[in-house]
Inverse folding.
């Protein structure tokens, strides 16, 4: 198989130029002002006309949940639906969170999560390994998991009794990460404070989804960021704050960076475009928009967009965590604390950023590529194999039509949720052609590829 993409405007994190791209089998092998198809071996050559379109490196989502046993249920997607959704939206590689229970063996969890993707996924995939307990056995298994190519940990300061770690275990896990050279990604909200706030709200009869935000205000997230950065400062561990949602949390991370802490900041699509008013919608509608950290006051969005523009915030992920409204979100009808946390966005992310970031002038195309692809590849040890349009890089490419106009809708969604958080919103731009290692896997929002083509991306510890 060979692919020639002709006349597109190639946009990377730093460059913007018109050229032809030739991919022999799975790799980009030539990028030149003009490549004559007649000069190429004709056998199995696919020529794609990209005139008037952008050619981006495949987008990388550094924060997704696909197999997720959580809050008494399981997230609604699997690698069949999630990879179709991701590819339809231009995402060619994801980093999924492995989230075992507190008594599970880490190695078993790694094998379970990997088995859900192997042979099924149509996109490439890798994992962050959550540390939910830290004893000698866990330590040995974590070493083995890093050796198997999972070069990042995840820690939860939130979710008391389910995923959170004691400070002793957190310290131990971060020390091990430093020793192994792996980065620690962290959900930064203080579990104890949230638990206390939730209890007092429920005791006052404040049970609806509109109270979720009040149970975990910005100061709780800021204190979580401060906490992880304090441990990072003590230990020299590199850390990454996931789904950073508000000005207070961003400020804490930047203050730590000023002190010399190696901290990277992730924003996620829902926090950039949805605000707390969605979670306050009546008739339990707010449950559709319940995630953690919660949707914030609108003014925080400009702080996040500004941080991306200035590149103080490195990445934009989704925190894709799909739960159906009709049955799963209903589990919390009597208490918001029982509503499964999460919003589906894996398909919509790139177009949301293009529509509400680039088209509004909040960021340029280079920043879009940097935050939605290249930085994730760099931070998590995949660059320049991923996140780049370079000779030698994997031929993961997105031919993007900026002239497309449409609406976001459930009808077009491949995810198995029964609602679209962005239903009816204007959409500018669409991935016309999406390739994974040289094969076309999606076209104009439709999956046209092969399930099982996706590969596990082994990553080396680089921190
Ligand atoms: O609400 C969220 N974010 N659900 C998924 C779990 C997590 O905290 O990332
Ligand atoms: Zn989280
Ligand atoms: Zn998450």
């Amino acid at each position: 198989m060979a692919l020639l993409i002709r006349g597109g405007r190639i946009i990377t994190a730093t460059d913007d130029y018109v050229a032809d791209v030739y991919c022999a089998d799975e790799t980009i092998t030539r990028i030149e002002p003009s490549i004559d198809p007649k000069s190429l071996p004709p056998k199995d050559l696919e020529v794609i006309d990209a005139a008037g379109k952008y050619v981006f490196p495949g987008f990388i989502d550094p924060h997704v949940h696909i197999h997720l046993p959580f809050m008494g249920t399981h997230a609604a997607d699997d690698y069949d639906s999630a990879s179709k959704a991701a590819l339809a939206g231009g995402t060619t590689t994801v980093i999924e969170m492995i989230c075992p229970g507190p008594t599970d063996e880490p190695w078993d969890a790694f094998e379970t999560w990997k088995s859900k993707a192997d042979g099924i996924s149509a996109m490439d995939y890798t994992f962050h390994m959550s540390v939910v307990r830290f004893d000698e056995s866990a330590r040995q298994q974590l070493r083995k998991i890093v050796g198997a190519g999972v070069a990042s940990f995840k820690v939860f300061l939130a979710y008391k009794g389910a995923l959170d770690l004691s400070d002793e275990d957190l310290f131990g896990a971060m020390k091990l990460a430093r020793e192994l050279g792996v980065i620690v990604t962290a959900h930064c909200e203080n579990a104890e404070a949230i638990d206390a706030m939730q209890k007092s709200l429920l005791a006052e009869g404040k049970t609806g989804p509109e109270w979720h935000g009040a149970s975990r205000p910005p100061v709780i997230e800021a204190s979580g960021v401060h906490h992880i950065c304090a441990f990072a400062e003590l230990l020299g561990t590199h850390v990454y704050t996931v789904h950073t949602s508000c000005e207070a949390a961003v400020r804490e991370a930047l203050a730590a960076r000023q002190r010399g802490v190696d901290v990277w900041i992730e924003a996620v699509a829902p926090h950039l475009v949805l605000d707390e008013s969605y979670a306050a919608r009546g008739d339990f509608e707010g449950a559709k928009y319940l995630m953690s950290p919660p949707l914030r006051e609108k003014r925080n969005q400009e702080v996040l967009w500004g941080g991306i523009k200035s590149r103080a915030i490195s990445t934009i992920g989704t925190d894709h965590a799909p739960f159906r409204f009709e049955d799963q979100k209903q589990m919390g009808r009597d208490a918001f604390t029982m509503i499964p946390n999460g919003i589906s966005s894996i398909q919509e992310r790139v177009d949301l950023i293009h529509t509400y970031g680039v088209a509004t002038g909040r960021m340029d195309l280079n920043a879009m590529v940097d935050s939605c692809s290249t930085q994730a590849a760099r931070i998590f040890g995949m660059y320049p194999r991923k996140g780049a349009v370079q000779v030698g890089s994997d031929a993961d490419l997105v031919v993007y039509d900026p002239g497309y106009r449409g609406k976001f809708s459930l009808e077009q969604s491949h995810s198995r949720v029964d609602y679209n958080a962005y239903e009816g919103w204007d959409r500018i731009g669409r991935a016309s052609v999406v390739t994974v290692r040289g094969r076309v896997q999606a076209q104009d929002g439709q999956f046209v590829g092969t399930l099982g083509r996706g590969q596990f991306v082994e990553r080396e510890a680089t921190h």
